[in-house]
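re: that chain from earlier
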Amino acid sequence: MIQKMQMLQKRLIGKTEEVVEKELLIQEKEKLYIELKHILARQPGPEVAEQLQTYQATLKDKTRQMKVNWLMTILINEGPGWFYSPGPGGPGPP
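^ sequence. v structure.
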């Protein structure tokens, strides 16, 4: 009877140690989960991606318009012959 009690006590101590180890693992996993949750909360969402695409399209349009304005300014100031580069002895602008 005493041997059986000692055996049961040893098993109980072993199981208690297992539970403590598993609780420590759970606590570590919970800490990691919370850290990852905070990291994900700081990540931009799909709204930011949509807004970025809108900004990129606007930038592209404005760049294109600036190039057109630049060429128009050159044509107005320099005249249509500015882009002809006659070679030596070659014909000039029409």
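The chain has two domains: 1-40, 49-78.
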